Amino acid sequence: MRRIGHRGAKGHAPDNTIESFEKAQALGCDEVETDVWLTDDGRLLISHDRPRPEHKLTLEEVLDFCRGKMGVNVELKCEMSEKGAQQTGGQVGKLLAERKDPDVYVSSFWWGALEGCRVAGPSARRAFIFADSPDRSSLMESARGMRLWALHPNRTYVTPEMVKAAHATGVKVNVWTVNEPREIALFGEWGVDGIMSDFPERIPKG
User: Fold this and answer.
1) In the chain, domain spans
2) Which candidate, 184, 201, 203, 176, places its Cα nearest to that of 12?
3) Which residues of the chain have pLDDT under 50?
4) Global pTM?
5) Does CATH number 3.20.20.190 belong to domain 36-50+67-194?
């Protein structure tokens, strides 16, 4: 399983900060998850919620810090706008195509964001995030049609059957946000590929 730090190492340091990413590295994370927004002036800013004036950290700075140290799962964020989601995906896809970072990929709740990324950066790996119980066959059909690399279900909605179906489709499963050791062990038994946690040191590697 891949040890994935949620917003860096959220349980140990302020989330989505270089301090948090440094802590994730110190805790042996294979990768970190972070959140990006496209601002009106074209910047890609790191923040879980819509960026406020005090948010200055850019996606480029996070990728520069993590390059060669850890992978990065870039969650494409947006509010109430399919067009905005697609534009966010497009900007990030363009950036990733230019940078050619080998261990960076995107994820989103927004299909439009994933499609925007695919068009602008066809080689970028993409993952669909969800927090409900979609019809399994329809989900796998969509994953195939979108040529997804992974599915990112909320921990509440993971089942052994889903993991098996995803792997049969050629898609990985990375689960969020799992902090309880017993649950981490259970998902490990089910064969998930990665776990996102606020306390990533609790996730056994390998």
Assistant:
1) 36-50+67-194
2) 201
3) none
4) 0.97
5) yes
